[in-house]
């Protein structure tokens, strides 16, 4: 490829956050024009985002000869010096990195950890305490606590981590650090309470479960950070995770890659980086990063599940099924692995197999409200397998656990109407589902289609027009609106909706029916509430149970 071609390809890859391609194309372009400062800086950033830290450090040296104030270049060289335990040189690099709020917090925290590396914990804490701004208070007290804990000053560690925890009790890393420091100081009851409180907010997180297991078995609780290198990794991970939440993907990638340079075993940095790639639809890159999670990490099992889901998203369907089936076989007592396989089977319309796998998952469950979603999806799978009595029992049980769950209300209510069963109660359920999810086009469509099935066509039109505003590109809703228009005599509008549904890539069996309706319209009016093979859309739970 020509130099210009490499450059344009690099820009395109960079815009799509395809870090591997961007780094490769910029590197090739730089070979043809090695003195081009702008090109070198772009290649430098691309190399860092892709984790090519050796290339990044080499280019940082060259960039500083052209621009002595390049803050990112100084940061990279400072990190390299810390890795080499050249703490004085690292401090010089961080001090020379220029100004700006972000640079201040990064350089200050990293400089503090260089002093700890040099054995001066007093100077280390004094350095991070220079972050007087209240916006930095969480970082300041958190890292001071980690420093004190790393050198065994338990009382000071407890004091600082308590301040941090009181300010932020819903962040996983802070809760884990708080529990660990409290346990290491001898307060096992408080450590357990903190873990259990977080488990109520986000049930079954593997890090929380691992912490509770360590407490229950009496195993020694290691510190979050043991030395300066890992402290630097923790700084960079924290900044990277903030960047990821704020949709600053490039900055997040660079910080997380630098964190992994300092601590390649930092599992949270790995999964956070993988999540960035996943949100950017860089599925193959995300798979590669998830594969870096260390064996034995509490996050290993979840990472393997994500790999299976990403294989499916990447179009590697056979690989996805093999991966998740093997995972469920290897971990027959892991409900999350079994559920992942069940969900994949259901998404592929392997409903009988999915129902069996959901049954396995329920047998592994500890019980409780969160079982509603497994019961719901097993109910969907049973209903689609034409085992209505079993499906209905699952939907009813799901509503016992979660009485106002809109997806369950929607599916059970629609199914009853479609079979002319419990019609008053069914409509009550569907209306309640719409009240709970007034902007969910699929649920409104179910209520509308229930009206249609009962021959109440004006009411069906009214609700379907609401649904189409919310989901204008859904072929099923467009098809339904066409049918309702036809029944109220608005036949030109009906054909318009059917044509639109045809162009929205409907399922093959639906397309065949739509084409017939475009050609000949609808047959004579059916008897109200006739049986149908159609079913309301089964959605993924949005709230995790």
List the helices and strands and how they pair.
Blueprint: H1 3-15, H2 19-32, H3 37-49, H4 53-66, H5 71-83, H6 87-95, H7 101-117, H8 121-128, H9 137-150, H10 154-167, H11 172-184, H12 188-201, H13 206-217, H14 228-245, H15 249-262, H16 267-279, H17 283-290, H18 300-313, H19 317-330, H20 335-347, H21 351-364, H22 371-384, H23 388-401, H24 406-418, H25 423-436, H26 441-453, H27 457-470, H28 475-487, H29 491-502, H30 508-520
Helix pairs in contact: 1-2, 2-3, 3-4, 4-5, 5-6, 6-7, 7-8, 7-9, 7-14, 8-9, 9-10, 10-11, 11-12, 11-13, 12-13, 14-15, 14-16, 15-16, 16-17, 17-18, 18-19, 18-20, 19-20, 20-21, 21-22, 22-23, 23-24, 24-25, 24-26, 25-26, 26-27, 27-28, 28-29, 29-30
Shape: globular
N-to-C order of helices and strands: HHHHHHHHHHHHHHHHHHHHHHHHHHHHHH
Query: CATH topology of the domain at 414-520, anyone?
Result: Serine Threonine Protein Phosphatase 5, Tetratricopeptide repeat
| Distance, first to last CA | 52 Å
Proportion of β residues?
Answer: under 5%
Number of strands: 0
Q: Give a quick account of the main beta sheet: strands, pairing sense, barrel closure.
A: none
Mean pLDDT: 90
Number of helices: 30
Q: Specify Rg, calculated over alpha carbons.
A: 29 Å
| CATH level-two architecture of the domain at 414-520 | Alpha Horseshoe
Specify the CATH class of the domain at 414-520. Answer: Mainly Alpha
Q: Decide which structural class fits the backbone.
A: mainly alpha
Q: What do we call the CATH homologous superfamily of the domain at 414-520? A: Tetratricopeptide repeat domain
In helices, the fraction of residues equals: over 70%
